[in-house]
């Protein structure tokens, strides 16, 4: 069992990434946790950091990117949610963009992404767009994606994340 101290730092706009952060916390020894929550003074003291983000314009949100750009000589496990998804290729593109903000002195020890529900205002915006003359042809697909995302992160997503964390930590639980 790995006895390294860690922190879980996340940014969550709608609660999806917080659910992932809580699943990580459940997977690790509580007595080794230095910090759980948002980026605050002193939160990055741990050598191992689980850094969570929500996807904004195809990369991590501003708060998460600002944190990641400051980090040096850390072991980082990235985790995040995206309203669009169901595609590992899309998630990998997002993760690749996020990694561009991380100093090379850090090492990425693991990653995990899944779909997350979006605010109802997004669906309402799509519906209004459909009423306009010459609506974009992809609106029905966007609405279907929105509806699929409503149940995420689900129990399966959370279990997959826990397994990824256990693999990273060398724990077979």
Automatic annotation (TrEMBL):
Any matching Pfam family: Flavodoxin_3
Superkingdom to which the source organism belongs: Bacteria
InterPro entries in UniProt: BilS, Flavodoxin/NO_synth, Flavodoxin_CS, Flavoprotein-like_sf
Domain Flavodoxin-like intervals: 8-165
GO MF terms, alphabetically ordered: electron transfer activity; FMN binding; oxidoreductase activity, acting on NAD(P)H
NCBIfam families on file: flavodox_BilS (NF045594)
Name assigned to this protein: Flavodoxin family protein
Native source species: Dysosmobacter segnis
């Amino acid at each position: 069992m790995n006895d390294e101290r860690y922190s879980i730092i996340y940014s969550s706009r709608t609660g999806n990434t917080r659910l992932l952060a809580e699943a990580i916390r459940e997977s690790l020894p509580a007595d080794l946790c230095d910090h759980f929550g948002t980026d605050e003074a002193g939160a990055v003291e741990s050598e191992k950091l689980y850094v969570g983000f929500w996807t904004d314009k195809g990369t991590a949100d501003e708060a998460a990117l600002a944190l990641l750009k400051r980090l040096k000589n850390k072991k980082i496990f990235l985790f995040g949610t995206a309203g669009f998804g169901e595609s590992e290729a899309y998630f990998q593109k997002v993760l690749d963009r996020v990694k561009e903000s991380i100093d090379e002195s850090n090492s990425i020890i693991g990653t995990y992404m899944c779909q997350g529900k979006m605010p109802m205002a997004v669906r309402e915006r799509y519906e209004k767009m459909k009423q306009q003359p010459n609506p974009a042809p992809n609106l029905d697909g966007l609405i279907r994606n929105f509806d699929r995302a409503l149940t995420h992160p689900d129990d399966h997503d959370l279990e997959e994340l826990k397994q990824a964390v256990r693999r990273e930590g060398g724990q077979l639980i």
